[in-house]
């Protein structure tokens, strides 16, 4: 029901309650049984068991598990399948460890507080937990309360409510209990207060009209649960990549099995050879590598104060092309700050203008601002100033401080005699001060009200009449300020001639005032936003502002952050509502600002961009942002935001800093680069082994040139550690100077394909090496296999430096900049040395001891491999430059 369109009497009647005595306890029990508790249904965080089994949901893991099962049942030795299962378990443990740690952090971030509220039951006031409320309850609201349910106001006394979590508006809404039209937008329903909002000022009495899932907050929470969670770009790319790898491996194995069987006629022998090829081709180390790269990226983003909630989301950050951000608290600080002091003599900007506080009208501005408010100054242990009070009062105290006046010091010189508190009826507050032989009346409040009771105006040269021309001048400026979303407070003064304070009636003295000027307050831009936006533009990211604020306010903020916005590039929620999806999709690319937007509009905007193949990030902090945060490819919640927003997000900004988004996007790009390095390196090594085994056994009819256990050692030990080392690879030069990675681009690029093919072709020479050592020199099968094992292993220790950068040659970078990679290279060589020199490992891996000449051969071959890879890279670099 549109409760805001009903009178108080009709509302009370429809809810079958009593204004004076409230509900009876018996009626409350009946209603609670029928409606349920006043709680918003929450999606439970996954348990540790769920998080653990979630790690198995990866195409690469599926391939490994299938290969492991096949090897377990169809081969005599079980060590190959054991190694594959070990690879799966290691990958799963890494993923579980990171995601469980994130889950625990989220639990700590959530403030599990049971709030209480004062309700009238059976004629008596009673304090209860908010869960116990039912529709029809009469509740009392006071300053500082968190609203426990959706309520229709019955009585108000200077009631102001912060509705930022629902509307995005940074200014507190002034409330009343008048009947409103049936089509009034949520942000303008001044006779309603909604669950989750905060009472900033005043008092009120209200009747509960909706609880739990039926509240506006509850409806958004339900919408959130119904929003389908799409696969991340990385998950989609992995699925596609895994399918291709699987098809290629199956095709190679089938081809070799059929060709070998036709040639040799021994089905069992060829089946075992095919299994050996599969073992060689399956990149067992890849799932571990990718998990570790993502996990380390996650840790790096956390150090930059961004909490990534899912491993697969880390890479998505690097593919982000559109950032849809809310204005309040995301781009701005979400608090009142002095931006301008306006007088009839002109404007001054305290942060930019040198102020002579002893010069009128500025001396009066600073004194009135400092004294005519209910705020106060507090000092902590370090004697640091803390301003307390309602937002407007705190802002006025800070204005006085900017002018060099501390409230408590000024009150010693000009003692407070009387005070007239602010009220919505009066629209002003007043204070009376003794100074020292006269009385001074200071007034602050609504500009319209102060203008109506002022007869004179303070100028630099003295006090003059406030004529029609001056009044129009002030009104024009007031309209300009309010259109730009500023909060304006007028300040005025009056000297009172009286012998004693008892004879002064403040209410009667509010006339013939001297208008001094306006204090203009605004929601300032966050300090790091402008630079962050500049980096975003340089990185090819399109920034879009979606806000509940007015058009002009949003445009001003956009221009402050460096965005160039035309009127045709701004659209309001109501206009968007009228557009069909087809028409909206045609214009979505040119719109930079969405003003007066509601949650459903945000969803529409994100869906339109996603349909155009863009990777969309959505930032926000309120309940109203949560569905869009979840729907976006990357949902970003502010650390100070609501729990609902955080639970829907992929990334939580722990410091609310917009620059963390830029750092996270940069880290995402670094992670994507490092994943590609790992894939290119692993596949080149894996397919080299597969082709070597295939040609040796099928084409030439030779025995296996490298044993399955040696292949697994190479894949698991020689490959895994260098691959993990790529996770520590520093960012490449110009990583934020290139555009975002297209969503449909493959994980396996054309350059990676040619590098892999080139590496495989060059290592094809291993077939010749095997023949040369085994048959030509007749050095024995074990020696020949040891040398092939050595060629692949020693190559690894050198080639990993070529894969440090796929876009630049090794002589253009510092090849030893990654200490972990250096250690991995040494570990790889030491691993091979141990296999050929430690007796029990020699027996296990069927290797022999190698002499100096053999080592010289292995090292020269490795250097030639590096040169060949660098030649392929150089050809691509030259082609791109042309």
Protein model, in words:
The protein is of the alpha+beta class and 882 residues long. Helices cover 49% and strands 17% of the residues. The chain contains 33 helices and 26 strands. The strands form 4 sheets. Strands 10, 11, 14, 15, 16, 17, 18, 19 and 20 form a 9-stranded mixed sheet that branches. The protein has an 8-stranded mixed sheet with strand order 8-26-25-24-9-21-23-22, sandwiched between helices. Mean pLDDT is 82; it is low at 108-113.
Question: What is the strand and helix layout of this fold?
Answer:
Blueprint: H1 8-14, H2 25-35, H3 48-54, H4 59-74, H5 79-109, E1 116-121, E2 124-129, E3 138-142, E4 150-162, H6 164-167, E5 173-174, E6 192-193, E7 198-210, H7 216-226, H8 233-264, H9 267-281, H10 285-303, E8 306-308, H11 311-319, E9 322-325, E10 337-343, E11 346-348, H12 362-371, E12 376-379, E13 385-388, H13 391-402, H14 407-413, E14 416-423, E15 428-434, E16 439-445, H15 447-452, E17 454-458, E18 463-465, H16 468-483, E19 487-496, H17 506-509, E20 513-522, H18 529-538, E21 542-546, H19 551-560, E22 570-572, H20 573-578, H21 581-587, E23 593-595, H22 599-611, E24 616-620, H23 626-631, E25 634-638, H24 643-648, E26 651-653, H25 658-699, H26 708-718, H27 720-725, H28 750-763, H29 765-776, H30 781-799, H31 819-837, H32 839-845, H33 852-881
Parallel strand pairs: 9-21, 9-24, 17-20, 21-23, 22-23, 24-25, 25-26
Antiparallel strand pairs: 1-2, 1-3, 3-7, 4-5, 4-6, 4-7, 8-26, 10-11, 10-20, 12-13, 14-15, 15-16, 16-19, 17-18, 19-20
Helix pairs in contact: 3-5, 4-5, 5-10, 5-26, 8-9, 8-25, 9-25, 9-26, 10-11, 10-25, 11-25, 12-13, 18-25, 25-28, 26-30, 28-33, 29-30, 30-31, 30-33, 31-32
């Amino acid at each position: 029901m549109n409760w805001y369109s009903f009178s108080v009497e009709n509302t009370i009647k429809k809810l079958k309650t009593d204004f004076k005595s409230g509900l009876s306890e018996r009626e409350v029990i009946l209603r609670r049984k029928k409606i349920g508790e006043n709680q918003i249904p929450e999606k439970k965080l996954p348990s540790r068991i769920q998080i653990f089994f979630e790690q198995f949901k990866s195409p690469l893991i599926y391939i490994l598990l299938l290969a492991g099962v096949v090897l377990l049942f169809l081969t005599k030795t079980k060590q190959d399948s054991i190694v594959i299962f070990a690879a799966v378990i290691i990958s799963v443990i890494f993923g579980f460890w990171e995601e469980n740690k994130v889950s625990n952090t989220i639990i700590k971030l959530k403030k599990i507080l049971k709030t209480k509220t004062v309700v009238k039951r059976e004629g008596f006031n009673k304090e209860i937990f908010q869960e116990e409320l039912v529709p029809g309850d009469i509740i009392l609201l006071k300053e500082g309360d968190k609203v426990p349910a959706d309520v229709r106001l019955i009585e108000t006394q200077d009631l102001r409510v912060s509705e930022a979590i629902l509307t995005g508006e940074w200014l507190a809404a002034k409330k009343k209990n008048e009947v409103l039209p049936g089509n009034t937008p949520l942000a303008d329903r001044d006779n309603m207060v909604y669950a989750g909002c905060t009472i900033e000022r005043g008092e009120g009495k209200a009747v509960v009209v909706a609880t739990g899932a039926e509240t506006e907050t509850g409806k958004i929470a339900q919408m959130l649960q119904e929003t389908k969670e799409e696969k991340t770009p990385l998950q989609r790319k992995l699925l596609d990549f895994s399918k291709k790898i699987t098809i290629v491996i199956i095709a190679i194995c089938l081809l070799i099995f059929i060709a070998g069987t036709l040639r040799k006629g021994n089905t069992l022998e060829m089946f075992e050879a095919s299994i050996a090829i599969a073992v060689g081709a399956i990149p067992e180390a890849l799932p571990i590598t990718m998990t570790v790269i993502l996990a380390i990226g996650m840790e790096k983003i956390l150090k930059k104060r961004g909490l990534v909630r899912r491993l697969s989301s880390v890479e998505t950050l690097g593919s982000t092309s559109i950032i849809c951000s809310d204005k309040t608290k995301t781009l701005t600080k979400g608090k009142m700050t002095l931006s301008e002091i306006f007088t009839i003599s002109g404007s001054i900007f305290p942060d930019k203008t040198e102020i002579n506080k002893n010069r009128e009208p500025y001396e009066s501005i600073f004194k009135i601002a400092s004294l005519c408010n209910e705020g106060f100054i507090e000092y902590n242990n370090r004697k640091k100033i803390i301003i307390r009070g309602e937002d407007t009062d705190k802002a006025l105290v800070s204005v006085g401080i900017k002018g060099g006046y501390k409230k408590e010091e000024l009150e010693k010189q000009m003692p407070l005699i009387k005070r007239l508190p602010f009220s919505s009826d009066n629209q002003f507050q007043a204070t009376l001060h003794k100074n020292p032989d006269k009385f001074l009346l200071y007034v602050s409040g609504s500009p319209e009200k102060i203008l109506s009771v002022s007869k004179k105006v303070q100028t630099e040269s003295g006090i003059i009449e406030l004529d029609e021309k001056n009044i129009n001048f002030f009104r024009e400026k007031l309209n300009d300020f309010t259109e730009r979303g500023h909060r304006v407070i007028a300040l005025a003064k009056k000297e009172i001639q009286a012998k004693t304070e008892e004879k002064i009636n403040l209410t009667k003295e509010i006339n013939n005032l001297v208008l001094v000027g306006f204090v203009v307050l605004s929601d300032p831009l966050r300090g790091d936003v402008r630079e962050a936006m500049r980096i975003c533009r340089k990185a090819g990211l399109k920034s879009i502002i979606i806000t509940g604020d007015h058009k002009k306010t949003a445009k001003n903020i956009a221009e402050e952050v460096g965005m160039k916005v035309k009127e045709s590039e701004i659209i309001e929620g109501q206009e968007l509502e009228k557009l069909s999806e087809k028409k909206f999709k045609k214009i979505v690319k040119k719109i930079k600002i969405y003003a007066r937007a509601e949650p459903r509009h945000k969803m529409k905007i994100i869906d339109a961009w996603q349909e155009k193949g863009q990777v969309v990030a959505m930032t926000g902090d309120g309940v109203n942002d949560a569905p869009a945060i979840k729907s976006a490819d990357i949902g970003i919640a502010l650390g100070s935001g609501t729990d609902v927003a955080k639970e829907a997000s992929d990334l939580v900004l722990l410091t609310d800093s917009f620059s963390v988004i830029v750092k996270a996007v940069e880290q995402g790009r670094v992670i994507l680069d490092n994943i590609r390095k790992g894939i290119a390196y692993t596949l080149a090594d894996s397919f080299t082994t597969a082709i070597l085994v295939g040609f040796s056994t099928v084409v030439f009819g030779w025995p296996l040139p490298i044993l399955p256990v040696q292949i697994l050692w190479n894949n698991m030990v020689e490959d895994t550690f260098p691959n993990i080392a790529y996770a520590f690879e520093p960012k490449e030069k110009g990583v934020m100077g290139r555009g975002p990675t297209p969503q449909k681009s493959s994980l396996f690029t054309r350059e990676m394909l040619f590098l892999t093919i080139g590496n495989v072709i060059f290592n094809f020479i291993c077939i010749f090496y095997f023949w040369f050592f085994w048959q030509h020199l007749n050095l024995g099968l074990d020696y020949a296999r040891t040398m092939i094992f050595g060629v692949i292993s020693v190559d690894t220790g050198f080639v990993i430096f070529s894969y440090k950068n796929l876009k630049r040659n090794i002589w253009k970078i510092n090849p030893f900049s990654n200490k972990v990679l250096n250690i991995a290279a040494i570990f790889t060589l030491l691993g091979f040395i141990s296999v050929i020199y430690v007796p029990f490992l020699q027996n296990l891996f069927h290797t022999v001891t190698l002499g100096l000449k053999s080592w010289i051969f292995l090292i020269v071959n490795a250097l030639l491999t590096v040169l060949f890879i660098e030649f392929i890279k150089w050809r691509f670099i030259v082609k791109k430059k042309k």
